Amino acid sequence: MKKILIANRGEIALRIVRACRDGGYRSIAVASEADMQSMHARAADEVHALKGNSPLETYLNQRAILDIAVKSGADAVHPGYGLLSENETFAAAVEAAGLVWIGPSAHAISQLGDKVKARAIARKVGAPLLPSLDDGGTSRENAREFAEKHGLPVIIKAQNGGGGRGMRIVRELSELEPMMAAAEREAGLAFGRPECFVEVYAENARHVETQCLADKHGNVAVLSTRDCTLQRRQQKLVEEAPAPFLDDDQLEQLKRASVGILMEVGYCGAATCEFLVTEKGEIYFLEVNTRVQVEHPVTEEVTGIDIIREMFSIAEGNPLPFSDMFVRGHSIEFRINAEDPWADFLPVPGKIKRMLLPGGPGVRLDFGYVEGDTIPPYYDSLIGKLIVTGRDRKQAIERAARALNEFSLEGVKTVVPLHRAIIQRPEFAAERREDFGVYTRWIDVEMQRLSEEAVALQAEPVTVKSLAEVTSLVLAEEIREVPTYRAGIKAPLSGLVLELCVNEGDKIACGDIVAVMESMKMEQSIVAEESGVVTKINAAKGAFIEMGDDLMGID
Asked: How far, in Å, CA of 498 to CA of 34, rounded?
């Protein structure tokens, strides 16, 4: 391999560009119109334009990316994470074009990227599983029968893909059908495949995983464990390696299941095997992510292994130079998302007016944006990742507190204030297993208290507007066109209108869902705050509208 096309964007694309440079490979980037001046596009040796901005016409456009790969003379394709990284059709097309696919085979992706097939493989090798409805033909009727038999709560999961997309927890039978519809719609948008399955939901469980590498010679190495318990709405927010407070027996179960599953399919490349650890310490297999993970840097920091470079080496046919690694120290990753934690984590695209990044001992920064960049509304809300490492977990947390306090960003809201509150909570910073009290829904449950603590910890500067600015705002208000309806239902975020659930002339009640929007791969239902009749709809299905714009008017 000499030239590697990176079929991705943002911080992971930049991460791969840097690995190419370290390894002596030439990097080829692809970029949508909104991303042509982005960090990954500027850093690559070559950049080729993808026409448009929506994911479907750009980074999910298999034909366009493959054409660029062939025309640019690429030898190989690295898909990063998300997007096409777990699409066996794309992997097969890359190999059919005579290029090297830097990842597992299309067959392995089809076996493990499909959660239903992966569970069958896990069952075959003896990995522990929660009860599920995973026969590949989940319907509303048999989902209801399953919930009635096993009890609530249950969780609906996208059959393909990951990252928390297409996932809903059902606690009332009346919620089952609408949540299945929402999960299927979100899965279709994120992965191009709407199929979902149903599983018993384990309350107050931790989310742990193993980072694995496998070569073409039958060798599988488990590099380290990770804990990814801290999530909001089933999407990871904080990750650490190694996973704390696991005993030798639990570690052996994790390793045995991971190796068994990957060897069963002849896996080759980087993989993450995900598990739940219940309050009683029981371990259950969840899924395999057939790609590099967002949180791979924490494993790199505690093992000294460059996982992207090892993926290159494996793709070239080299055997792994190690088996299991010795883990030293502790590392914690904080995802810095452009989201408003005080508004249900709504994404907030916009321009980064000012950004000061932390430094010092143990600090690593994997960012996809710099000061002055604009975060577009079409893709993921991840700005970058702050990774902090110490000799042990206690020192890593101490360094993280310092690094988070040094971080400053103006122009868009981020989740950093929430991170500052989280690391001060005794449930997270515990030094003994019996005091470690976080679980996958902990942030959602504790959000009110965390919000109050985050507000107390931060001192937001007050922006004083000039007289000219105030005057112009007043004049703008005076000349604004007065709507012909009593109230306007405004867009709570900038994004695409996925569905319009009402028509002009329809009567609506307070609490009715009138539309569904999507921004930065997050779906949001728009709810009427008062009753009335829809007199005017100002946006069409598929249209992009800005936050605060009138979506529709009611009388």
From this structure: 21
Average pLDDT over residues 422-426: 96
Question: H/E element holding 285?
Answer: strand 283-289
Helix (H) or strand (E) holding 275: strand 269-277
Q: Is the pLDDT of residue 202 over 90?
A: no
Backbone angles phi, psi at 130, to 5 degrees: -75, 150
Task: Pick the closest to residue 5 from 39, 42, 48 (CA basis).
Answer: 48
Q: What is the pTM of this model?
A: 0.82
DSSP-derived pairing of the beta strands 100-101 and 76-78: parallel
* Cβ atoms 274, 207 nearer than 8 A: yes
pLDDT tens-place string over residues 454-469: 888 865 443 434 434 4
Q: Give the separation between CA 362 and CA 504, rounded to whole angstroms.
A: 58
pLDDT in tens, 267-298: 999 999 999 999 999 999 999 999 999 999 99
Closest CA to 375 of 340, 325, 333, 424: 340
Q: Does position 392 have pLDDT exceeding 90, yes or no? A: yes
**Residue 166: left if φ>0, alpha if ψ -120 to 50, beta else—which one?**
left
End-to-end CA distance of the chain: 64
Pair of tokens at residue 363: 């600090």
Q: Quick check: 164 pLDDT over 80?
A: no
Phi-psi region of 423 (alpha: psi -120 to 50; beta: other; left: phi over 0): alpha
Average confidence score pLDDT of the chain: 89
Q: Determine the Cα–Cα distance for residues 185 and 523; give it in Å rounded to an integer.
A: 9
Q: Is 282 helix (H, G, I), strand (E, B) or coil?
A: coil
Q: What is the tens place of the pLDDT at every residue in 363-383?
A: 999 999 999 999 998 888 999
**DSSP conformation class of 25:** P
pLDDT digits (tens, 9 = 90+) for 477-494: 333 444 567 788 988 877
The answer to whether 400 touches 361, Cβ cutoff 8 Å, is no
Percent of the chain with pLDDT over 90: 65
Query: What's the pLDDT at 487?
Result: 83
All residues at 6 or more sequence positions from 360 whose CB lies less than 8 Å from its CB, including other chains = 399, 402, 403, 406
Q: What is the dihedral of CA 11, 90, 524, 422, to 10 degrees?
A: -40
Are residues 90 and 70 in contact, defined by beta-carbon separation less than 8 angstroms?
no
> How much of the chain is helix, strand and coil, in % rounded to 5?
35, 30, 40
Alpha-carbon span 503 to 162, nearest angstrom: 34
In one-letter notation, the amino acid at residue 273 is C
Rounded Cα–Cα distance for residues 87 and 59 (Å): 12
* Rounded Cα–Cα distance for residues 273 and 129 (Å): 13
Both tokens of residue 230? 């801290």
Assign 62 to helix, strand or coil. Answer: helix
Element (H, E) at 237: strand 235-241
